[in-house]
Specification:
Chain B: Belongs to the binding-protein-dependent transport system permease family. FecCD subfamily. The complex is a heterodimer of chains A (252) and B (326). With 252 residues, chain A is an alpha/beta fold. Chain A is built from ten helices and twelve strands. Chain A folds into two domains: 171 residues, Rossmann fold (3-Layer(aba) Sandwich), CATH 3.40.50.300; 70 residues, no CATH class. Classes of the chains: A alpha/beta (252), B mainly alpha (326).
């Protein structure tokens, strides 16, 4: 379980997060939604100890993120940031292989190599495995970074806008992969999504944020109402039921 | 731009560099103001003396320096996440020269090892300041980092010149700052084996350095101690730079050109590329030293001058290849 207690954050007196309390039990997909600047990415990077906590505390399976050895956490929790700029000329296979680094510290075993092969297949990257990542398209590179994060094999996956640059086919495939590891392997995904209909279709729980606060939190059917969405996004969105899921006509 | 990692590179390049180096190695042993005939090594003590006291040390020094500088450049580029920096242009070598100057002024009787130690500390300080500043520059402007490095190195170089002038040490300064191997004899180069030790250390921690090249956030996400690895890389760069400045002087371009060529062909996975960067660096510096010995035979052109021309041309070629392929 990821436990977030009374977490606030500010940069130069500009508040980013204001007293966040969240308990995210193990298993399932939680989607973080909200307008730009709501604090979603900042919250993820605090959980993943990418920046220091200012107030409050965060723990993963009882381990406080600010005092637990980084390597121990890296075996439990993986993060994909949204601005995944990789300037190094690594091949796709080498990059994904570094996802196993927390487990082998540079000396990969047979299991590590097998997991890399599996990730290459799972994300349609086998044909690109020897390509240098600086020569790939944005979507292909994004898939390689997602595959690297998956390959880390952690119980908790934090993904910040993983659907960036992905075409419809690969976006759907990624959401289905997340669903599968949540259902079959009881792994936990916490994922920042801008496509709210993906959240409606695949998430078990939606946490909607605005101005550094959690506005609503619950299963998709309860969160995705016209009143809630207006409170979060600031305009009226028509919501239909399609194929048994709420469908937001947010573009109209 | 090569977009796919070629499968043939490992053994083909290895064979070419290996054969080329072996050839240069033998040539370098043979070429000098005095003739050295290999056949006489077995019966002529003077030939043996020439071989052991001058030719072999000089050849080994050139190869160690080349390998070391290329690795120092590679690691500096990895740490700065910028392909256009190297110790000779970004303040490391100049800081090392400042260290030697200080050592000479304060402890005139200091041994070579002590001077190297002080130069290493100075290089470490100078490079840390460079790196801290480089990490603050906007990543959207990759040319700011080498530009800042040039200015920074220039300022430290100017301080060195000023202090040297005031202390009437300009002639010594010239010896430290323009790299050449003609003064290398037995007993005056052995410290350079320290550079070999640093290369082994770099290879030992190669995976950690590659992770660092992916940036702070990915490094932390993978549970790597980012700061500690940065510091370790800085120590490797500084020790190599200090050793080479103390013993041979500043040689430009090696640390810039060699890692760029290797990265272009084989990528940036340091576990695989460190041996080739070291090998190609050794090959390049030995080749340039040999060229300097042959061009005006029996006189010599300093290796730094030859490297300035050869390295500069190679670098220009790299730049034009880059722009032609986007």
């Amino acid at each position: 379980m990821i436990l977030i207690e009374n977490v606030s954050l500010s940069y130069r007196d500009v508040p980013i997060l204001r007293g966040i309390d969240l308990a995210l039990p193990k298993g399932g997909i939680t989607a973080l939604v909200g307008p730009n600047g709501a604090g979603k990415s900042s919250l993820l990077s605090l959980v993943a100890r990418l920046q220091p906590l200012q107030t409050g505390c965060i723990s993963v399976d009882g381990m406080p993120v600010d005092t637990t050895p980084s390597r121990t956490l890296a075996q439990r929790l993986a993060i994909l940031r949204q601005d995944g700029i990789v300037a190094s000329r690594l091949t796709v296979r080498e990059l994904i292989g570094f996802g196993r680094f927390p487990h082998h510290q540079g000396r990969p075993g047979a299991l590590d190599l097998a997991l890399v092969d599996a990730a290459l297949d799972q994300f349609d990257l086998a044909a690109l495995s020897d390509r240098f990542i600086d020569t790939l398209s944005g979507g292909q590179r994004q898939r390689a970074l997602v595959a690297m994060t998956f390959c880390q094999g952690t119980d908790y996956l934090l993904l910040d806008e993983p659907l960036n640059n992905l075409d419809m086919f690969h976006a759907r495939q990624l959401m289905r992969s997340l669903r599968r590891i949540a259902d079959e392997a009881a792994r936990t995904a916490i994922i920042v999504l801008h496509d709210i209909n993906q959240a409606a279709a695949y998430a078990d729980r939606i946490v909607a944020m605005r101005d550094g606060r959690v506005i609503v939190d619950g299963p998709p059917a309860a969160v995705l109402t016209e009143e809630n969405m207006e409170a979060v996004f600031g305009y009226r969105i028509r919501i239909e039921q399609i194929a048994g899921k709420p469908f937001l006509m947010h573009h109209l | 731009m090569i977009d796919r990692k070629p499968r043939w590179t490992n053994w083909t390049i290895g064979l070419a560099v290996g054969l080329g180096s072996a050839l240069l190695f033998c040539l370098s042993l043979a070429v000098g103001a005095d003739d050295l005939v290999f056949a006489r090594l077995f019966d002529d003590p003077a030939t043996v003396q020439l071989f052991l006291a001058s030719r072999l040390p000089r050849t080994l020094a050139a190869m160690l320096t080349g390998a070391g500088l290329a690795i120092a450049g590679l690691i500096m580029q990895t740490l700065a996440r910028n392909r256009f920096v190297e110790p000779a242009t970004a303040g490391t070598a100049q800081s090392a020269a400042l260290g030697i100057l200080i050592a000479t002024l304060l402890f005139p009787a200091a041994t070579l090892a002590t001077k190297t130690l002080i130069a290493s500390v100075a290089a470490l300080t100078g490079t840390s300041v460079f790196l801290m500043t480089a990490h603050r520059l906007p990543p959207t402007q990759p040319y700011l980092v080498p530009l800042f490095g040039l200015v920074y190195g220039g300022v430290i170089g100017a301080i060195v010149t000023f202090v040297g002038w005031q202390a009437d040490l300009l002639q010594f300064l010239d010896i430290w700052t323009s790299g050449e191997f003609s003064g290398v004899v037995r007993g005056r180069y052995e410290l350079l084996w320290g550079a070999a030790a640093m290369i082994v250390l770099a290879w030992w921690v190669a995976d950690r350095l590659t992770v660092v090249s992916l940036g702070r956030e990915i490094s932390v996400g993978l549970g790597l101690s980012y700061q500690r690895t940065l510091q370790l890389g800085l120590v490797i760069v500084s020790v190599i730079a200090a050793l080479t400045v103390v013993i041979v002087g500043i040689i430009p371009f090696v640390g810039l050109v060699v890692p760029n060529v290797v990265s272009r062909i084989m990528g940036d996975n340091l576990r695989g590329t460190i041996p080739w960067v070291a090998g190609c660096g050794a090959f390049l510096v030995l080749g340039c030293d040999l060229l300097g010995r042959l061009l005006r035979y029996p006189y010599e052109i300093p290796v730094a001058t030859v490297m300035g021309v050869v390295g500069g041309l190679l670098f220009l070629r790299l730049m034009f290849m880059r722009s032609a392929h986007g």
